[in-house]
């Protein structure tokens, strides 16, 4: 297996589940790992565990609650102040359906539907903020950890003020990630930066799955294998703008291929994060 000793990798949501185990895998291959979490003390513990498990000391921790766009901006600023090149950005942090049966609509600190922001919009902002150092590391990669669970976006009710259901909110955010993937890949064609979306595995044994479904179907290891394949395999090296169902190129919800819908999402996203086409207003 090829060493990743000269690579810098940032994983959001690296304090648990898929993100944490993927961090161990990539750190064991020698990469410099930038771990993101939302809880300082859990982050510090994860950092210590990761050093122990991988024997790699090139690990750093960045804290930001993705329910706050200001915290995302601050985190991006901190990464940019310490690093000039980022070879792999894995947008992985996510909030699932929550406890089954909970129907209370939740908002972020910015007043945005919570799952739309945490799973999608904050990663949109983080990605655009870090794009200069991703471009300077080319050939480089962005992977949006999406899901096979996708729900069409209703542009007359993106914030789900009508008919709210937490798992629909989750699935809408996961499709938004795929739509973002296709658009960003097209924008970055020719720069040496490739962008893909990934369904890592179905019902892995992680907190979000236990909380909503109560039982699991696959291991986190399977998800890490798929993520590692999309991130580092020769076969996937130049693939861009695709949705992978584990290691297979696959088709997402049809709305992902609707350029007009993607354009609406893109325009709305830049407006919500206060950027004009990739640069701060
Ligand atoms: N598990 C599956 O079967 C499955 C299937 C398809 C896709 N996925 C996707 O895989 C990704 C990882 O999920 P997982 O299964 O590993 O879930 P998980 O074990 O619940 O981990 C989620 C991670 O996201 C972080 N996070 C949650 N809310 C956050 C917030 N507001 N701000 C910052 N960080 C936040 C969590 O932080 P804490 O450690 O502080 O909780 C944790 O590190 C998600 O994008 C999910 O949609 C999972």
Give a written overview of the molecule.
- With 281 residues, the protein is an alpha/beta fold.
- It has one domain (8-280): NAD(P)-binding Rossmann-like Domain (Rossmann fold).
- Helix content is 43%, strand content 15%.
- The chain has eight helices and ten strands.
- The protein has helices at residues 17-28, 40-54, 69-82, 114-136, 166-187, 207-213, 220-232, 259-273; strands at 8-11, 32-37, 59-63, 88-91, 140-145, 193-199, 242-245, 248-250, 275-276, 279-280.
- The strands form two sheets. It has an eight-stranded mixed β-sheet with strand order 3-2-1-4-5-6-7-8, with helices on both faces.
- Helix 1 links the parallel strand 1 and strand 2.
- Helix 4 (114-136) crosses helix 8 (259-273).
- The longest helix has 23 residues, at 114-136.
- The radius of gyration is 17 Å and the shape is globular.
- Bound molecules: NADP nicotinamide-adenine-dinucleotide phosphate (NAP).
SSE inventory with pairings:
Layout: E1 8-11, H1 17-28, E2 32-37, H2 40-54, E3 59-63, H3 69-82, E4 88-91, H4 114-136, E5 140-145, H5 166-187, E6 193-199, H6 207-213, H7 220-232, E7 242-245, E8 248-250, H8 259-273, E9 275-276, E10 279-280
Parallel strand pairs: 1-2, 1-4, 2-3, 4-5, 5-6, 6-7
Antiparallel strand pairs: 7-8, 9-10
Helix pairs in contact: 1-2, 1-7, 3-4, 4-5, 4-8, 5-8
The protein binds NADP nicotinamide-adenine-dinucleotide phosphate.
NADP nicotinamide-adenine-dinucleotide phosphate binds at residues 13, 15-19, 37-39, 42, 65-67, 92-95, 118, 145, 147, 199-204, 206-209.
